[in-house]
Amino acid sequence: MSRKPVHLTVYDTLADWETGHTTAWLARFGYEIRTVALSTAPVTSIGGLRVLPDLTLAELRPEDSSLLVLPGGDLWDTGDDLAPFARTARAFLDAGVPVGAICGATAGLAREGLLDDRAHTSAVSVYLDATGYQGGKRYVDADAVTDGDLITAGPTEPVAFAREIFGRLGDVLDAEKLDAWYRLFHDSDPAAYETLNS
Question: What's the mean per-residue pLDDT of the chain?
C-alpha cells in the first residue's frame, strides 16, 4: 500500500527524544519520514543532533502528507520564531490531515487558538494557561489525548504520544498489537513482546 509521507518539523532546540518512538516505528511500518524546517539550513536539536531538512515549510502541502508532527523545543517559549509551524498545523487540521504536538509545541498551538475547542493535554495545565488561550476547560490531565485529527502529549510521554498517533493513523498496528506495543515500551511488560511479535 502506498502511503503519503509523515512530516516531522525540525528547528533549533527541538526536543529530539519526544518523537523518536513515533518516527522510528512509523518508518519501520513503511512510512517515509520527511523533515521540514523554515529553510534548508541544518538545525540542531537540544541533544546536539544536526538535522538537514528535506524541505521547507513553504513547500509543504497538507494534501501531500499523512501526518504533521511538531516536537517541543525551547524556541516555542522564547518568541514567535516557531509561529509559522503552528499556522501550518492549522492548515493541516482545516484540511483534515492529522497533527501531533508534544510539549512546547502544544503551547504554540494554544497561541494559535487550535486548542480552544479541542480536548488536549500538555506538560501541565498552568503551562498552557500562561499562553492566554481560551481552552482551559478542554484540558485533560492525561498522558496523551486525541481529539479528531489532533494528538497532544506532555514532554514525559513520548510512548503515549506514539501510541495515539499509531491509533489515529489506523494502519500501523491492530488494537491488540497496539496495546502490546504500549505495554512493552511504556510499562516494560515482557509478556507483551510475544503478542507484539506474533
Answer: 96
